Sequence to fold (251 residues):
Amino acid sequence: MRIPFIAANWKMFKTVQESVVFVKQLRSLVKDASNVQVVVAPPFTALHAAAEAARNSQVGIAAQDVYWEREGAFTGEISPGMLKEAGADYGIVGHSERRRLFHDTDETVNRKALALVAAELTPIVCIGETLEERERGETLAVLDEQIKQGLDGLTGEQVASIVVAYEPVWAIGTGRNATPEQAGEAHAHIRARLRQWFGGDAAERCRIIYGGSVKPDNIGAFMALPDVDGALVGGASLDVRTFADIVAKSR
Fold:
């Protein structure tokens, strides 16, 4: 049985103080949501403070990105070990904004995912097609390539423990979202490929979550789909009560 996984990606929002206030409020609001895994991804500067505010609660902490080297002359980058020391449990890799604005590739996403696993952090690996790719009928081929390259080198046991986030790029921050039918097709395809390439156990245990303009009024329709195990929430996660409402409606 896969436990629903609901993550808040704050992107470049919230100061340290704002993050602490949010996490303290959130832990109170979701204290009875025992059958949902709740995760918050603050900016790097707020990771440690957010993790301290979440201590001894069911709120997990994710980093929004990572660099794959343990240490070295990589100005501006953050290693998996640094994230772990700061209190992170998870790391988001391959978000469409990282791919589009900062030129992350399937190869670098793979290196980041492998580095997180090696540091005993859980990767949240984002995949998804652009509007142009969908209109050309290339959605499933794009997902195949991103899965094959992004998860290369991981064992079936490791894939079973990670989170895959399907994010149609055209639905990120646009107010548009995939229909339940579109999301259901993509999630079923992803799980089929995980089964084919990593085995049945990995496919059954891996959480595949949806990202793309998720809100309280549409989370229920996505969670009703058999292969949707949760959500990666962007804009709607910036308000603590709205995010807590999404958590409540995901059960």
